[in-house]
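Give me structure tokens for this 418-residue protein.
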Amino acid sequence: MAKQIKAVFADKPTLEKHNCFKEENGNIEILRNESTGWSFESLHSKIPNELELQNLIKGLKSSLRSKYNSLAVSDEGDDQEQDDDNFQINEFRLHIPPMIFDKDIMRLKVGVNSISINAADALNLWASQHVEENLAERPLKIVKVPCSTRWMSKLASEGFSTDASTASGDKKDNASDKKLPESVFDIGTAAIATNATGAAQEPLILATNKAYDWTFGSDYCCTINSREAEADGGRRILGAIDLSSQTRLDDIQPKELETSAKGSWKVFSESQSGIDIGLLRQTNVPILFYDEYIMYQDDLEDCGETIFEVKLRVMPTCWFVLSKLYVRVDGSLVRSKETRLFHKFSSSAAGCTSSGSPVVVHVEVTWREYSLGAAENDTNESPSPLRRFLYQNSKDSTHMLPEVSQKEGIHRFYTLRC
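Here you go.
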């Protein structure tokens, strides 16, 4: 299954006027800007087949194994590894989105350094939320459907339990023992629901693994590739949490900044946005290259939708990238995690070389959210117009959602410099 999305270039005379050229490298389409040293690569692929999906999961598990000491990942020979789209991490049973385009390429290169956004790295950070060593940094937040509490209460009122001892045949005499976990999935060891007499109820088989983030809520921003970077063989996967630990630009002296920014990418936090909105709104400037990507998508078992998409625009004066992870759980929550990257071209930039000025890419991270709790606080006399977003696709209207804090101490604005 292929997506009906394709890169759009300006006509040849317009490209040549701005010293840009369209190239192809196999199936990869490339726009090369000779004046600035930037090139933009695009590839749209198909959903992976069974073998490609297995290789994707192997690569994901291998990356997590090398990153975390306490990680327990199921072996290839594990009987539970029969399903192609899921795998075990510690006590969590994870599965990847059914519609994923892991081979899609959106890469921006300048000199030997590049910035890219891809599905595999986004899922890497999502899976990291389920590793014990990283729970403090990326706390696991489980979103429930509205009927979850009612269903659990109904089971409890009928005397069903998910306690492991009950599942093995021990009778429950104390009414308090009938109380179920807060989440249907927060069971850990229980396998089969039983009633008050201890008899197993075959239709009520509950999950044996801890709840995982079934909305695929990664805090992924982008991946930077540098010739001098050490992590992952020259690659660094950046999430909002990772960006929070970067040096504040205000704390760097100008001469020190000029020296530290040469060569590989360096990340600094900023006090304000560096995105030139006025430049992006100019209607008299042509768009040389435009593309959009769906990295992964899921209908959340018909309970809403998750879609991670990226849009790229290249103009004669600048380029702009918007990546958005949109999540809607019907009647419960709507969330948008957005990352914007912006670079204004300079004729003096020589591809991150010692002879050119430092290349500066501005990064802005924004999280927005509206939940059932917020909707319940609305008065009946004047319900919030945002309430409708809990039940319909609103990914193109997320600017109306209230901003939320990503985590205490995390900044919104950053720069990548080389």
